[in-house]
Amino acid sequence: MKSLFLILVVTLKLNVLSQTYISATYITSVNYSIKISYSGSNYSYSKPYYNTQHYAQATLQARYDYNHQWCSNEYWAVKDLTLVNASNRATLSNYKNQRLPWVYNAIKTWNLGVDQNAYTIINYCCEIFSYKAIKDEISILRAINGEIHRLKRTLPGEYHLSKRYQELSTVLTKLNGCSPSEINTLAWNYGLL
To answer: Which of 4, 112, 172, 183 lies deepest, with the highest CB count within 10 Å?
Structure first.
């Protein structure tokens, strides 16, 4: 009887140890990816909702506030971005180090009541979203995020035990080490396009 109980406990323990979990770092990247969107093949800037109440005397302040919020949203979109692919992470880190200090200073010092100033800041800040490798990775991360939410909906409480969840874990592991040019192939092979 004791040996039967011992075999059952060991079997359960092995099943628990064999389960695949996606690391918190990968989940952060997957969750953040949904904040980035593309319209066709181009990055779609976020547009803050701001009610100017159509008062003539508030127009300049409203434009400044709107542009400031818009620039800030895009600054944080780049600053908070995390990626899985090692090469893309290095590119992103260099990009942040080179551009974000300038963007931060421009947001603080430029006259954002002038729309052209805001467009200049935003275009300079968000250029990374047009890089093919970054765009491909964000696309695959968004697809993985959608799959995880689908699994949670269809298999509540057991989604992490599913074969598809284990495949997603494998994709993220492969994504970490693959070349940026292989990201689309990886997405294709696992049905994440």
So the answer is: 183
Give, to the nearest 10 degrees, the angle between helix 59-79 and helix 86-109.
160
pTM of the model: 0.73
In which element (H, E) is residue 73 found?
Answer: helix 59-79
Query: Half-sphere exposure of residue 81, counting CA atoms within 13 Å on the CB side?
Result: 33
**DSSP symbol at 43:** E
Q: Which residue has the tokens 């047009």?
A: 130
Q: How many CA atoms lie within 13 A of 117 on its CB side?
A: 16
Please tell me the predicted confidence (pLDDT) of residue 22: 80
Q: How do residues 66-114 score in pLDDT, each as one tens digit? A: 999 999 999 999 999 999 999 999 999 999 999 999 999 999 999 999 9
Enter the tokens of residue 122: 């935003």
Residue 33, burial from CB neighbour count under 10 angstroms (0-12, 13-18, 19+): buried
Structure tokens at 91: 């590119």
User: What does each C-alpha distance from 117 to 43, 64, 72, 99, 126 come to in angstroms?
Assistant: 19, 10, 13, 16, 14
